């Protein structure tokens, strides 16, 4: 069946301009929120959907600019015979070159016959659907798709309102599932009459006062009533038409009352078996209403795992599960820039698939901070907790994603893929061990920002030397809480030749007697290879939220500056 080969959108909702040559199979749009992913899905639905009209508003125009018309232009090929009928569409048939991904205005050898459908909306808000070709425009010819042909092109949209597809209506999945068509006209008429007779007289007792008032008013106005009034059903007003017959369970409950996820999954399964109609599927927020295991099943039913699937699917998603299940070449990052929107294939290099599988959350964010290890991740998470509890701008709400690189040597392993796709990237590392200098230089050349502690410092030393003296006792007490007093005391004594202990800090709560050398000994004690105090995400998160963030204004300037710069970068200042 017909496949979308080219999409062009102008001045529609979140999108000023956009062009895309999608895959013939699965196309999953990803990226940060509010970039316009749903706009693309809605544009396809509006342009190809079998509708004669649609209400538009000023808010459908990009930035409310009604001076420039909305344009949605979709070119399809792999056409059914009726769509290649020269008697109907001769001037409008075009050619698609699959090798070069190019549209020729006339059909030709080695070109797939194609049609370009255009939806335009001007300031009068009146939508116009038409076919387009350059030679038809030159000849002054105008034409729209015949209604039956529009139905052939229309896709199936699977969303929150799936009742349509769970009843026998023209164009529903059930209607397309088999050749069996219910002959309902006569039976529906009989059902209306039976309902009227069954209702007869039931409401008289409940509505007798109202009926008497009607009689009185009618008499006063000189309206002649032949007989005593009754409250009866008006058979002509009983709405029994398309969609009247729906699938119910054994207890008579319609399947449309199933949960959202279940109805979506069921409609997808029915679509998989449908005998005719378009193989185009549209799903906005694919994961909506589905648990992880059913997301995987949903993707399978829609043909995402089949290389030879006849379906062409357009999804949007914010789910890491979806990203892990799809191939990188099925994913497209929707990016917005000064030159408009672009859909960038996630398959930009040989590392793309590994990056998507290992760090899917990064592909759903606006900017990515690659952390050397769990400690750096925990530090940022603790800062976030403090910020949100104090009404400051959220780091994660600003579009930040954290990657735990798992060591300095792997710090820039995934960065080239993310940078090639336009993500803002930064790294956050210690300075006691150095990464590959060529990798870090290339990272910075492509716009990456490097955050690191002072020369030779690792994170524990940076924190211990950066904290104000009054926070050294709380620092030690948190270690006692997390690891017990005996282990904490053992580490302190072992790294200071017995000069430091838990008691030392308790006896000096203001930290006035703690020398720079003592701080170095404390840093060594908390970062030893055997049971380090704050090497896990949870432990460092607690330290960051309860001690570092509240005391940040009083911290050492060099330490404080690193924290301030990271937060400013993550929140656009």
Low-confidence stretches: 221-226
What is the third-level CATH name, the topology of the largest domain? Rossmann fold
Number of helices: 21
N-to-C span = 50 Å
Overall morphology: elongated
CATH superfamily membership of the largest domain: P-loop containing nucleotide triphosphate hydrolases
List keywords for this structure.
about 575 residues, 3 domains, alpha/beta, 21 helices, 6-stranded mixed beta sheet
Describe the structure.
This protein has three domains: 221 residues, P-loop containing nucleotide triphosphate hydrolases (Rossmann fold, 3-Layer(aba) Sandwich), CATH 3.40.50; 53 residues, no CATH class; 209 residues, no CATH class. Helices cover 35% and strands 17% of the residues. The radius of gyration is 33 Å and the shape is elongated. Helix 12 crosses helix 20 and helix 16 crosses helix 17. Strands 1, 2, 4, 5, 6, 7 and 8 form a seven-stranded antiparallel β-sheet that branches. Strands 9-10-11-3-12-13 form a six-stranded mixed β-sheet, covered by helices on one side. A four-stranded parallel β-sheet has the order 15-14-16-17, sandwiched between helices. Strand 12 and strand 13 form a beta hairpin. It contains 21 helices and 17 strands. It is α/β, with parallel strands linked by helices and 573 residues long. About 1% of the residues have low confidence.
């Amino acid at each position: 069946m017909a496949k979308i080969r080219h999409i062009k959108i102008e001045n529609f909702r979140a999108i000023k301009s956009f062009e895309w040559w999608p895959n013939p199979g699965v196309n999953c749009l990803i990226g940060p929120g509010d970039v316009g992913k749903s706009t693309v899905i809605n544009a396809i639905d509006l342009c190809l959907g079998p509708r004669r009209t649609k209400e538009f508003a000023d808010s459908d125009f990009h930035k409310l600019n009604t001076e420039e018309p909305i344009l949605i232009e979709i070119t399809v090929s792999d056409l059914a015979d009726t769509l290649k009928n020269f008697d109907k569409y001769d001037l409008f048939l075009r050619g698609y070159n699959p090798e070069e991904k190019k549209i020729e205005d006339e059909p030709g050898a080695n070109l797939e016959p194609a049609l370009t459908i255009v939806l335009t909306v001007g300031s009068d808000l009146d939508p116009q659907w038409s076919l387009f070709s350059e030679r038809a425009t030159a000849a002054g010819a105008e034409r729209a798709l015949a209604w039956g042909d529009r139905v052939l092109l229309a896709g199936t949209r699977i969303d929150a309102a799936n009742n349509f597809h769970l009843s026998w209506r023209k164009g529903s999945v059930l209607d397309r599932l088999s050749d069996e068509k219910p002959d309902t006209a006569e039976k529906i008429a009989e059902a209306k009459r039976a309902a009227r007779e069954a209702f007869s007289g039931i409401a008289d007792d409940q509505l007798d006062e109202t009926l008497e008032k009607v009689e009185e008013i009618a008499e006063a106005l000189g309206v002649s009533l032949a007989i005593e009034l009754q409250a009866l059903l008006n058979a002509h007003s009983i709405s029994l038409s398309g969609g009247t017959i729906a699938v119910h369970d054994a207890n008579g409950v319609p399947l449309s009352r199933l949960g959202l996820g279940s109805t979506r999954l069921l409609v997808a399964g029915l679509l998989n078996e449908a005998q005719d109609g378009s193989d185009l599927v549209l799903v906005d927020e694919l994961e909506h209403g589905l648990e992880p295991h059913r997301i995987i099943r949903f993707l399978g039913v829609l043909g995402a795992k089949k290389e030879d699937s006849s379906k062409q699917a357009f999804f949007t998603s914010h789910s890491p599960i979806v990203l892990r299940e799809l191939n990188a070449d099925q994913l497209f990052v929707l990016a917005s820039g000064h030159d408009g929107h672009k859909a960038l294939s996630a398959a930009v290099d040989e590392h793309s698939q590994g990056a998507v599988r290992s760090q899917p959350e990064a592909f759903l964010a606006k900017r990515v901070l690659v952390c050397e290890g769990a400690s750096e991740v925990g530090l940022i998470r603790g800062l976030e907790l403090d910020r949100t509890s104090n009404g400051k701008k959220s780091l994660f709400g600003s579009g930040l994603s954290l990657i735990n690189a798992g060591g300095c040597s792997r710090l820039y392993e995934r960065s080239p893929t993310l940078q090639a796709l336009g993500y803002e990237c930064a790294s956050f590392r210690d300075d006691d061990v150095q990464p590959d200098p060529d990798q870090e230089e290339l990272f910075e050349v492509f716009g990456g920002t490097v955050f690191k502690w002072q020369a030779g410092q690792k994170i524990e030393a940076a924190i211990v030397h950066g904290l104000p003296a009054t926070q050294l006792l709380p620092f030690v007490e948190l270690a006692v809480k997390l690891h017990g007093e005996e282990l904490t005391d053992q580490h302190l004594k072992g790294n200071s030749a017995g000069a430091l202990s838990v008691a030392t800090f308790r006896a000096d709560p203001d930290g006035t007697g703690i020398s720079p050398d003592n701080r170095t000994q404390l840093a060594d004690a908390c970062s030893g290879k055997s049971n380090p105090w704050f090497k896990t995400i949870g432990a460092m998160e607690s330290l960051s939220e309860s001690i570092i963030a509240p005391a940040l204004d009083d911290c050492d300037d060099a330490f404080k500056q690193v924290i301030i710069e990271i937060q400013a970068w993550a929140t656009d200042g």
